[in-house]
Predict the structure.
Amino acid sequence: MPFLNVKLIEGVFTQAQKQEMIRKLTDTMVSIEGENMRPVTWVVIEEVNSGDWGVGGNPLSTSDVKALAKG
């Protein structure tokens, strides 16, 4: 039973984008393990509070991530 746990900073992705992640991650696992594993493939998306995630000793906020995505 594969269990995929995805952590994201809150407010960066829309509900539709998170649903797409769930579908695509499930499809990826099924492509590796076989279609019989689809019903038992779990994907959980957890959102971390803005500012509670840090990289290189620096906290990241929702606005920081959105700025990174824009380039």
